[in-house]
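STRUCTURE:
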């Protein structure tokens, strides 16, 4: 694993920092009792697990039950370390996912078949730092091959951590098939429903960052700036889809098959932002409403194989297919994600920015003992936390619908 402690001299010089500067940097951190390395972190390890199980049970001659479960997981550590960072600036990344699936197939007499399916799945990703500390960044000027070079060394925590995301999905469907006329006609009536719920917290710089202009300033505990995200953006949302469909497969003659039907669908989304009267006044759109849609999609098609004879098991050398219909895609989840955190209240991360005399004192030992001691205000009060970007707004036209072809 390549870090500031293990990087060869050639790598350090290539990054624009001399080995003497690295030695002084580590000595300064040791004087402040800051951990320079962590136990058992000489290697970068990644572990993967997976499991799959299935059970088929014939409850009777007319009922068959299939159960299937799957699970997978991954851990990786240390993550987000490099040649200009210490091992303790990394973190641990974990992810897992899995689900359970069940199918019950039942026959009623010789003409009716019912198939009930259900699937529940979940996934999660999480990244946590080894140390719940602000990150320290130090500008270091070194002479490399008779030229002046400036590089940045980092210690403490990692602004990329922590992050979390999760999602759960439920799918249920039921289909009834009815065979008539010696299987010349097969009617299918089906109902399905699925719902997905998501949560995402990927805010940056949760524990803050102290920046130092030189090793001398680091030794004197004199940071040039301190920044920290105080109010992160967390996006929660959900979407659901349901459909009712009816189809018929008709074989009017040898080599012919005609399929026709229709599909009635409804889609909606949850987790809208709060109501903003100014947006409604300016744009005549509401921020607290996400679109929903009900749509009917008809379709019909045929297959013709000249010369085919199913009774004698003779296939056709040529197959001609045709048809017409409308096919509908799901809603664009990315647009919903933007709308679910829209508006001045939910789309803006509040960030503390302190410079000069307003920078708080970096008491690393206090931060190590209690992360709640990490500053939430500038020295002497300072300016109020400011948003990190301009407000964004995503609203929908009343005519908005899912893509169709």
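SEQUENCE:
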């Amino acid at each position: 694993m390549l870090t500031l402690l293990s990087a060869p001299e050639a790598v350090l010089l290539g990054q624009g920092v001399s080995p003497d500067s690295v030695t002084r940097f580590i000595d300064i951190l040791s004087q402040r009792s800051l951990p320079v390395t962590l136990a058992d972190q000489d290697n970068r390890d990644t572990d993967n697990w997976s499991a799959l199980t299935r059970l088929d049970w014939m409850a009777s001659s007319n009922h068959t039950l299939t159960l299937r479960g799957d699970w997978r997981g991954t851990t990786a550590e240390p993550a987000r370390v490099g040649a200009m960072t210490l091992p303790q600036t990394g973190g641990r990344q974990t992810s897992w996912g899995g689900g359970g699936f069940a199918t019950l197939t039942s026959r009623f007499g010789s003409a009716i078949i019912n198939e009930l399916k259900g699937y529940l799945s979940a996934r999660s990703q999480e990244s946590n730092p080894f140390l719940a500390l602000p990150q320290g960044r130090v500008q270091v000027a070194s002479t490399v091959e008779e030229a002046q070079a400036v590089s940045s060394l980092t210690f403490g925590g990692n602004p990329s951590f922590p992050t979390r995301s999760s999602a759960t999905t439920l799918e249920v469907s039921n289909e009834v098939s009815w065979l008539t006329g010696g299987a010349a006609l097969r009617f299918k009536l089906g109902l399905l429903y699925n719902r997905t719920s998501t949560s995402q917290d990927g805010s940056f710089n949760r524990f803050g960052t102290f920046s130092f202009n030189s090793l001398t300033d680091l030794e004197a505990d004199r940071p040039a700036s301190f920044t920290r995200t105080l109010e992160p953006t967390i996006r929660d949302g959900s979407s659901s889809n349901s459909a009712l469909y009816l189809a018929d497969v008709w074989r009017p003659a040898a080599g012919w098959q005609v399929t026709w039907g229709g599909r009635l669908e409804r889609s909606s989304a949850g987790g809208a932002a709060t109501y903003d009267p100014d947006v409604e006044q300016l744009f005549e759109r509401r921020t607290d409403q996400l679109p929903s849609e009900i749509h009917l999609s008809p379709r019909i098609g045929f297959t013709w194989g000249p010369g085919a004879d199913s009774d004698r098991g003779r296939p056709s050398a040529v197959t001609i297919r045709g048809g017409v219909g409308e096919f509908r895609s799901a809603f664009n989840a990315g647009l919903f994600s933007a709308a679910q955190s829209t508006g001045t209240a939910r789309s803006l991360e509040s960030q503390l920015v302190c410079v000069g005399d307003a920078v708080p004192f970096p008491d690393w030992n206090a931060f190590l003992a209690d992360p709640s001691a990490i500053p939430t205000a500038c020295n002497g009060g300072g300016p109020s936390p400011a948003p990190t970007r301009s407000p964004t707004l995503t609203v929908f036209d009343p005519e908005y619908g899912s893509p169709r072809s």
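REMARK: Helices lie at 9-14, 19-31, 215-219, 277-283, 333-340, 343-346, 364-369.
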